[in-house]
Design brief:
The chain is built from 5 helices and 8 strands; from the N terminus they run ββαββαβαβαββα. By secondary structure, the protein is of the alpha/beta class.
Length: 194
């Protein structure tokens, strides 16, 4: 085996018993650092100190590592315009803070028959937050939920947003105008005789 001492100097190739004898004379340990090499490489070191330094390096690496959270914002196909704007603003804030966002549109019961409303809402959301984030996972239907994952925009990334595909596989159109629904006023209901 090839033996390296505590200062990094190569002592040469020697049998294991001889390397162990040298390590014991110096009051240190013989540690195999590269068993697959030909011949295997061993170091003469203080093993406790080695473990401590290795653990400290790993701890420092974790401390400097930035963790990215995945936040989830849920919508319904019947989410009102104001609520949509509030939730969209939450997504923008999360993206600016560096978190990923999972946008979910949950369908219940008969809403499943009108999934196109959810797809239009998802496409509108993606278009409106495209300045702050990019689509990491394209929108897809998973059971009763339509989900997409948005990631913070990297510097120098492309700004184009590709249209999403609906459940039939065709490209869904992006609704830019807010749909308006005519609601009867309370006074007109009273005159109807109801």
């Amino acid at each position: 085996m090839r033996v390296v001492d505590e200062e990094g100097k190569q002592l040469g190739i020697m049998p294991p018993w001889e390397a162990l004898k040298i390590a014991r004379e110096r009051g240190l340990d013989l540690v195999e650092v590269s068993p697959r090499a030909t011949p295997p490489v061993c170091r003469i070191i203080n093993y406790g100190k080695y473990l401590y330094q290795q653990n400290k390096r790993q701890h420092d690496a974790r401390k400097h590592q930035k963790s990215i959270e995945l936040k989830e914002v849920k919508f319904r196909p019947r989410t009102g315009e104001h609520d949509f704007e509030v939730k969209k603003n939450h997504i923008v804030r999360f993206l600016q803070e560096g978190s990923k966002v999972k946008a979910t549109i949950a369908f219940r019961g008969r809403e499943m028959a009108h999934r196109n409303i959810g797809w239009e809402m998802m496409n509108r959301l993606i278009e409106q937050v495209s300045e702050f984030g990019q689509v990491e996972t394209r929108p897809r239907q998973e059971g009763p939920n339509l989900t997409a994952i948005l990631a913070p925009k990297r510097p120098g990334a492309k700004t184009s947003v590709a249209p999403a595909r609906d459940q039939s596989g065709s490209t869904a159109s992006v609704a830019t105008a807010t749909p308006t629904v005519a609601m009867p006023s309370p006074s007109s209901r009273a005159t109807e005789g109801g």
